[in-house]
Design brief:
By secondary structure, this protein is α/β, with parallel strands linked by helices. It has two domains: 144 residues, Aspartate Aminotransferase, domain 1 (Alpha-Beta Complex); 232 residues, Type I PLP-dependent aspartate aminotransferase-like (Major domain) (Aspartate Aminotransferase, domain 2). Helix content is 39%, strand content 18%. The protein has 14 helices and 17 strands. The structure holds pyridoxal-5'-phosphate.
Length: 396
Amino acid sequence: MTMQEYIADAEGALLHTYNRYQIVLEKGDGVYLYDYDGKKYLDFVAGIAVFALGYHNEEYNEALKGQIDKLIHTSNYYYNVPAVNAAKALKAASGMDRVFFTNSGAEAIEGAIKTARKYAYLKDGSTDHEIIAMEHSFHGRTMGALSVTGNPKYREAFQPMIGNIRFAQMNDIESVKSQLTDKTCAILLETVQGEGGLVPATEEFLKEIRRICDERDILMILDEIQCGMGRCGTMFAWQRYGVKPDVMTSAKALGCGVPVGAFLMTEKVGAHSLAAGDHGTTYGGNPLACKAVETVFDLFEKEHVLENVGKVAPYLEEKLEELKEKNPAIIERRGTGLMQGLVFDRPVGDIIQAAISKGLILINAGPNIIRFVPPLVIGREHVDEMIAILETCLPK
Ligand SMILES: *Cc1c(COP(=O)(O)O)cnc(C)c1O
């Protein structure tokens, strides 16, 4: 079959929830992808901040193959070795105390919401607690995650959402305070907003939220699904700020391609929230997914991934700034680490189309922003290659 025939078949079989780019990706190697016709692409998307280690990492692949031959799945009613190792690695990397594995980011958010409600319920027995989330946030597509996602366009047709969610402005502490009530049980935000436009929380904002949460004994929940796992230069983005959340979520690069997420909490929250019977999942934390997590943490260390981000991210930032200086259509560069965005004065769809046709995979974050979330193993030469292609795709 030709690539066009596969695309036609896909459009005949898959539910049309994505306007897909017209390529069928077949294999990957390092920071490059190949389509069904053998055309090579430099990948600055990494499956949306997922494939941190790059494609076709021999050790990662072998670890998974070994686990497939041993045991792919068993129920959470029994223990399995990869889940133990993965949970210990996550604890060590985050300094959090308790881990629950999920299949996705959205499910990790669901777990975090349930944790916050139960924590508050155990304190006062009431069932009308509120959560404060941020405008322009993105937390996933399930009903709970959608309810805390600050983008009315995603929510509109699916009303009613879960109740008692209030929205505040990111980096505006007064707007958070104005939404606080006696019923507030948690404040939820991405440490660095991804989908909403590559907006890092300020240190001041996070510290003030921490203070409010401590004062009221309510939970600070940080969504690290996109910005975590080394993308911003530390294993989790909040670790740069001198604050620690009560609950955090992870997914995307956590499994580097195998679907897995997690929500984590401190010992105190773990002891006073979800208990036996309160939450569960069939697949979450299965041996295959957890082998991926365990291996990802091993390889981050072995391949010095954080050091690489520390070296390449400033270079990417510098090159994007240069591009901005040269091109008046670019209004702003923002983001942090290997999670960067260029804000344009116009929709970026055509630029991305042009880049893909020239062998560079990019993605947007909203209509006017190009997002750069490459594998964390890229080198400076890949940044140069990306910039050289992108330059030829920009409006004159
Ligand atoms: C992608 C994402 C999610 C949702 O994760 P899924 O695995 O797609 O359910 C939640 N929060 C953030 C910040 C994300 O980037």
